[in-house]
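Q: Structure tokens for this one, please.
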Amino acid sequence: MKMHIRYRLSSTQKGIVLLEGLIAILIFSVGILGAVGLQATMIKANSDAKYRVEAGLIVEQRISQMWVDQMNLANYAEPAPGTDISAGSGLPNGRRITIRGDIPNCAGNLSCFVVKVTWQQPGDSAEHNVTSVARVTGGV
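A: Here is the predicted structure, written as tokens:
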């Protein structure tokens, strides 16, 4: 003979499973939103790093050109606002400025150059830059 035992739920426990389900969905949603926010931050940091590397490469290329062509160093000066390099470099709103000997670090030494590359990311109000000071000896 089989015995069937029935438990009677009190009126205070009706709907508890629904409430637990809703709380689980809420916790899951907060976790997903956190993961999406983290992904967005990683994408922004990755693009910022890409632009910094590209700007550093442009600065080093400019200094290399001056080392190779020391007889024409005077032709490399690009006063502010500089040369627009955004089309060929991939830097949004990119500009390159090359100053010769007219800064505090150089004290009027004409073999001293400052190369500065600036860019502004889309949707960002801040202007970013990479600057390098080089002494190119020789030439005129």
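A few notes: The longest helix spans residues 16-68. DSSP finds two helices and four strands in the chain.
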